[in-house]
């Protein structure tokens, strides 16, 4: 029974990975049922029963998520091109679907996203993905590594995590203007508070980009800082890197009490690699670092 269930989950995971890789292609029932190696007459019911979303709605939300990232985070493509990439034959059809989901037109979202409806709209998609992407970490996946110190430029986010998207927008716009591309300059997040502090106003995270060049603020509040070098426990997360809390909890709650190590006086941080939508979402990578003495 367990082996059969694992096989079923593997086939469904194959479908989700195929959707991630082929958002620009035809993703009808014939194609996806073939990927899963199930009859198309039963596949759509199996998919809905497993994920709580129909195949059509899942694909639509996945395309809209990529489109919204491209709109919000500085993609140079026009709204028309983004609409076509999202599977819509005309910009007005895309605009209607976008407004229905997020309460804003694509152009308005590009200028000033309202993140609360955005988060609510993708709740069903995130829930669907988490059904098969829940990860049970093991001690074998944690390595201890000596890391070099890295000078960084920092954009601080202080306050309600619901407004983090706006800070990310400013961070990306600044680093783009400064010529600090993710492929050449590493990206870090340093968490200085809990993910869900008792008061949202206490939420605190630093968005950092590695650079040893003089920092030109260009109107932003940019600070110079450093990711300190030294020994770190490192845990990699592949796919579903929007929520790194399970990995962080594993390091703190399970691995750290049993490891016999002592922590250094620097917060948990991560280095992000393989950014969505530049790579399919399930190929995004984040490495968590727990500094050790």
Overview of this structure, please?
- It is built from eleven helices and eight strands.
- It is globular.
- The longest helix is centred in the first third of the chain and has 20 residues, at 2-21.
- The protein has helices at 2-21, 29-36, 40-51, 55-72, 79-85, 91-102, 106-111, 115-121, 123-133, 164-177, 245-259, and strands at 142-147, 150-158, 187-191, 204-210, 223-227, 230-238, 269-273, 285-291.
- The N and C termini lie far apart (46 Å).
- Strands 1-6-8-7-3-4-2-5 form an eight-stranded antiparallel β-sheet.
- 44% of the residues lie in helices and 18% in strands.
- It has 293 residues and is an alpha+beta fold.
- The model has no long low-confidence stretch (mean pLDDT 90).
Topology:
Elements: H1 2-21, H2 29-36, H3 40-51, H4 55-72, H5 79-85, H6 91-102, H7 106-111, H8 115-121, H9 123-133, E1 142-147, E2 150-158, H10 164-177, E3 187-191, E4 204-210, E5 223-227, E6 230-238, H11 245-259, E7 269-273, E8 285-291
Antiparallel strand pairs: 1-6, 2-4, 2-5, 3-4, 3-7, 6-8, 7-8
Helix pairs in contact: 1-2, 4-5, 5-6
